[in-house]
Amino acid sequence: MYKFLYTERNNEKATEFETKSLLYLLSMREDSDEIDTFFIDCFNDVTGTNKYCNKLWDVQSKGVKSLNSKKIGKALITLFENYISDINFHFYILFFPRINSIYFINDNQKVFGIDNFKESHIQKLKNGLLEEYINRHQEEDVRENIEEEIEEFIKKVNFVIAEDNKSKYIKNIMDLKKAFQKDDEFFNSIFDDIRDKQSVLKNISIHLKEIEEVSEVLNFKKFLKKQDIEMLIVDRIVGTNIFKNRRVPIGFLQYIEGLSQSEIRDIIQKCDSEVSLMLFTNSDKKNFWIFFEKIYFMIKNNIYSDINSIFDRVKNEKIVKNKVLSEISTKYFISLIEEGVKDENN
Fold first, then answer.
1. Hey, which of 35, 96, 162, 231 has its CA 20 to 30 A from 262?
2. Cα distance between residue 25 and residue 162, in whole Å
């Protein structure tokens, strides 16, 4: 059983560091592809889970540059409480800004374990965590072997230094290089949109609620799906809501002319399904962004004048190994991007 004790934060907005920690989980780890859902202010600031809810990445973010080794220990308290809980967490991550190099053996590392702290500071860190734990509990509730548990716990913690630039977290998701010559303000605005979505979820109180299984947290509706974030980014770049906009792109009308309403509906549904599948299948994710970038670049720079010419270029030069999109779905996707670019230029 797990009881939510430390989540009562009414009217509190998600901080920049909480959003950075979410986006770090989403795309900046070697195992990011495994993460499907992000619980917001449930077990911790952000907790990632796979689609089966049986593997958890727990993140505590601390956006304070004045941290010292004792304060770092105190900041570990929620991660530690989860470590000794009845729920099995697979990763414990403390996410914080770059601080004074005096605490570290190698100041160039951005992700590291406790062994990167200088020996003199490790004990201060452990003391800080122990002190915070005792402050949270009545003396009779302090676990008998608490110091041994702290010793084992800190060996499992990943310490992650945050990037200063918000826009880098968005650009990293897409890994696009040529087409999107937009300033940081554009990418920062996408970052802020994601942060706002977090803020809404933080205001849902689950204080004192209890669960037996991790999957039960889904019932609280305090989560973001990876695909929701990726869709938001695509929509902002294209300038239209690809997956919810029921308006057929003008450029696509030539391919459905003369068909019945039911036939048109079936074609659009097929196209939406295939475009979604390409974006949300992890093995095709990189292909999606390459494909998206190439089409956007050709339309934005008027390299080809019509959808058929762009399609032929994509097909003949094998710009990307497209395993999902049929010919009609490819033309539909091209027409969506074309319409978004035209709206952007008007």
1. 231
2. 12
Q: What is the pLDDT of residue 320?
A: 57
Specify whether the CB–CB gap between 47 and 219 falls below 8 A.
no
Counting every residue, how long is the chain? 346
Q: In what side-by-side order are the strands of the sheet with 37-40?
A: 111-112, 157-161, 91-96, 56-61, 46-49, 37-40, 223-225
Task: Examine the domain organization and report whether 213 and 71 are in the same domain.
Answer: yes
Task: Note the pLDDT tens digit of each residue in 62-121.
Answer: 988 889 999 999 999 999 999 999 999 999 999 999 988 899 999 999 999 999 999 999
What are 9-51's pLDDT values in tens digits?
A: 544 667 899 999 999 999 999 999 899 999 999 999 999 999 9
Return d(Cα 206, Cα 141) in angstroms, integer.
24
155 and 43 inside one domain: yes
Q: What is the pTM of this model?
A: 0.84
Confirm if 60 and 20 have CB atoms less than 8 A apart: no
Verify that 282 and 307 share a domain, yes or no: yes
Q: Which of 190, 207, 231 is the last residue of a domain?
A: 231
Structure tokens at 290: 């390459």
Q: With CA atoms as reference, report the closest residue to 160 among 314, 23, 289.
A: 23
The CA-based dihedral angle spanning residues 111, 113, 116, 119, taken in that order and rounded to the nearest 10 degrees: 150
Domain coverage including residue 54: 2-231
* Residue pair 22/97 in contact by the 8 Å Cβ criterion: no
